[in-house]
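Q: what sequence does this backbone want?
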């Protein structure tokens, strides 16, 4: 058997791409400098993969921001408002992703959403009547030639037309059928040009096939590929899928003229069963995703070999061993993790180590189970990694429905809270964090290196907190936040105060663009070791007469933004976290914190991709886990939550069932389309749809925010509306954050005055 991977991390082993891109944005380096860094990273990545013994190496999996955006840009799916800026190519590309504000124009960024069931974000392609699909760029060809010049033959990778259409946003009355012919023509040209350059394979990613498929969907897919594959000539085409199974399309795709089909046998476990009923042709190559591309635990070779054996029994097709998805979703390498205990590191595998796992699996298959590699792996999994917290798990087993139910009912609570807080109409707040300035990061770095004392570190953070409290008071924000200057990350910070977690030094994973996160590892049973946010929240509240929100990360988000265990269910792990957070909530309440925000930014992230699996496999335990955290607080304590960058429209009833008092949503990039779903569902929770996009550096004007508020009030009663940005401000520069918040506060005051005048 041979080996391959679907894609590789692109930010660099020490986030070189992030830092170079940020310097480019600040005009500290030129575009030529940035492109040189990109070339160096690509060359290094290709060589690492080659040196690991991987047979087929992908190219064009690199991106300055997002590969879905890359595909759209390659195909000229560029809305006219961006073309009208007449920017150079790279600047235009970044304008699509980040927005643009300059003397020659002002445009918002395109919407950004979660990539299937991951914490990676993609830029949503926008199709309009003005869209003229045609080859526009040359990135896929240039990077293939770049690798070839280094003596490395690669398999170019491209997001497929069907997935672009399924994920795209259609306006001006357009529909997918309007673009089918042009997509067929452009993809055919791409195949012909790659073949002429000497490519022998192309990988076309179609993860949208793991969604539920209607007959119309499958008809569209067939139409696209009947046209595209007719022109492939000698070039071999790999249809690559991941994140699930092809239960309603495998019979179709195996009849089309693909040379290889990539199936995920980790998340798409049903794919093995499907091979019983769908004859996989012996003249096609099956690319078998048997190494988990999303989690960081070392592969259990016995399980992987069992899967491979099951595949071999069901088809005579050649098999290529692969990852279940791109390794983009795991950190780069374990080599720099010198603070993890050696006896713990042996259980882990990041991207570089997963290359070794593929090579070792092939070696074992070429020999027998007496191979030392197999013996060592079997020995590793023969003993437990940790000692179970039996008391905690017994407590969870004894939970009843009453433990998940808050009394009195929300309508009565909200009336009590309005009387208690006496907030104005359209109360203003922010989501939690303020900019993590160079000084804030330096303070944290100095503490980590032992250059300052804990007292000095805390004093700096307290001064920053006081400075931002004063700013919020001056501009008229109604419910304040302390800024979270003590927090490195909204999940890692909590994990550091909980038993059962392990932490890395350099295990960064790309979330979007230059933004990377460092997920903690859930190692064992989770419980609260000590109060986490109480002292900081109490200090912040002591500095103001206004209400100060306590800020927590919710149990489902902590699970989803960590690397989860594979030895227990996610449901049990989440309940453990929920009980730990319940202790924290009750401590905050006891210390006088009247509003507590429990963020569930990632609630939808691990929702099964097929609707038929939603409730029995996820929402039936994820929603109660949130309720468990806040079920014992008093009716005078108001519970907020926050969600961002996902498709929420189809789970609005489940979100309402969280039984929070107030929920803030990311809504600005999607032009507040969420409001229609809230209105249709008679959403009971008070709501703060984000009035401006914090993931873009542009500053919205006061009038722009006034207009957004009017759009909100056209769908939601004013008594139920809060005014806030769409996410935390951690990643923004201080001047733009302050300017935006000033305009937000003024806009809210303007609309309040209008409403008072009308009444």
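A:
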């Amino acid at each position: 058997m041979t080996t391959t991977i679907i894609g590789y991390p692109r930010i660099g082993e020490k986030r070189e791409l992030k830092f170079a891109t940020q310097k480019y944005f600040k005009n500290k380096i030129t575009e030529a400098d940035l492109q040189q860094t990109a070339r160096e990273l690509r060359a290094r990545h290709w060589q690492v993969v080659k040196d690991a013994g991987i047979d087929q190496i992908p190219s064009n999996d690199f991106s300055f921001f997002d590969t879905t955006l890359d595909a759209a840009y390659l195909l000229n799916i560029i809305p006219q408002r961006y073309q009208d800026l007449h920017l150079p190519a790279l600047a235009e590309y970044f304008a699509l992703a980040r927005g643009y504000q300059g003397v020659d124009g002002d445009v918002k960024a395109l919407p950004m959403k979660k990539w299937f069931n991951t914490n990676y974000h993609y830029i949503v392609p926008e199709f309009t009547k003005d869209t003229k699909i045609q080859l526009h760029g040359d990135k896929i060809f240039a990077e293939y030639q770049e690798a070839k010049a280094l003596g490395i033959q690669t398999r170019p990778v491209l997001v497929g037309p069907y997935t672009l259409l399924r994920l795209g946003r259609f306006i001006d009355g357009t529909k997918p059928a309007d673009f089918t012919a042009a997509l067929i023509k452009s993809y055919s040209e791409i195949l012909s040009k790659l073949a002429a350059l000497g490519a022998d394979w192309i990988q076309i990613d179609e993860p949208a096939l793991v969604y539920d498929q209607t007959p119309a969907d499958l008809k569209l897919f067939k139409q696209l590929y009947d046209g595209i594959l007719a022109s492939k000539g000698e070039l071999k085409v790999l249809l690559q899928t991941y994140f699930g199974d092809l239960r309603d399309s495998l019979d179709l795709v195996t009849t089309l003229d693909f040379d290889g089909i990539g199936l995920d046998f980790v998340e798409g476990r049903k794919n093995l069963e499907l091979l019983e009923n769908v004859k996989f042709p012996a003249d096609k190559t099956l690319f078998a995703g048997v190494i988990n591309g999303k989690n960081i635990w070392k592969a259990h070779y016995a399980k992987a070999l069992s899967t491979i054996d099951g595949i071999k029994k069901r088809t005579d097709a050649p098999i290529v061993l692969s990852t279940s998805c791109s390794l983009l979703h795991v950190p780069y390498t374990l080599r720099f993790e010198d603070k993890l205990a050696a006896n713990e590191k042996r259980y882990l595998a990041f991207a570089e180590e997963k290359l070794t796992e593929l090579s070792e699996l092939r070696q074992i298959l070429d020999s027998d189970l007496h191979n030392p590699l197999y013996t060592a792996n079997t020995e590793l999994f023969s003993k437990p990694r940790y000692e179970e917290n039996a008391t905690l798990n017994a407590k969870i087993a004894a939970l009843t429905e009453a433990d998940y139910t808050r009394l009195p009912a929300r309508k009565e609570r909200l009336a009590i809270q309005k009387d208690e807080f006496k907030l104005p109409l359209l109360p203003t707040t922010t989501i939690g964090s303020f900019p993590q300035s160079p000084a804030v990061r330096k303070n944290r770095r100095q503490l980590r290196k032992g250059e300052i004392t804990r007292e000095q570190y805390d004093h700096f953070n307290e001064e920053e907190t006081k400075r931002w409290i004063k700013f919020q008071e001056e501009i008229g924000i109604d419910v304040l936040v302390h800024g979270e200057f003590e927090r490195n990350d909204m999940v890692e910070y909590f994990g550091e105060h909980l038993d059962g977690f392990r932490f890395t030094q350099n295990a960064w994973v790309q979330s979007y663009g230059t933004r990377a996160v460092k997920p903690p590892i859930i190692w064992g049973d989770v419980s609260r070791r000590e109060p986490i946010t109480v002292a900081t929240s109490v200090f912040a509240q002591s500095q103001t007469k206004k209400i100060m929100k306590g800020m927590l990360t919710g149990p489902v988000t902590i699970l989803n933004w960590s690397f989860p265990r594979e030895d227990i269910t996610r449901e049990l792990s989440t309940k453990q976290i929920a009980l730990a957070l319940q202790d924290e909530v009750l401590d905050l309440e006891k210390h006088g914190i009247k509003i507590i925000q429990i963020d569930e930014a990632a609630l939808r992230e691990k929702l099964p991709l097929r609707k038929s699996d939603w409730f029995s496999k996820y929402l039936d335990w994820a929603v109660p886990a949130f309720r468990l955290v806040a079920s014992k607080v008093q009716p005078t304590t108001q519970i907020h939550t926050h969600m961002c960058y996902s498709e929420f429209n189809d789970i609005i009833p489940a979100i309402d069932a969280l039984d929070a008092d107030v929920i803030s949503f990311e809504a600005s990039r999607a032009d507040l389309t969420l409001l229609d779903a809230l209105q249709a569902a008679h959403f009971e929770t008070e709501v703060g749809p984000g009035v401006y996009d914090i993931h873009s550096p542009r500053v919205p004007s006061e009038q722009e925010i006034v207009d957004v508020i009017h759009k909100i009030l056209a769908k939601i009663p004013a008594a139920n509306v809060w005014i806030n940005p769409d996410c935390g401000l951690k990643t923004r520069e201080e001047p733009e954050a302050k300017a935006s918040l000033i305009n937000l506060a003024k806009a809210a005051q303007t609309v309040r005055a209008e409403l008072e005048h009308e009444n």
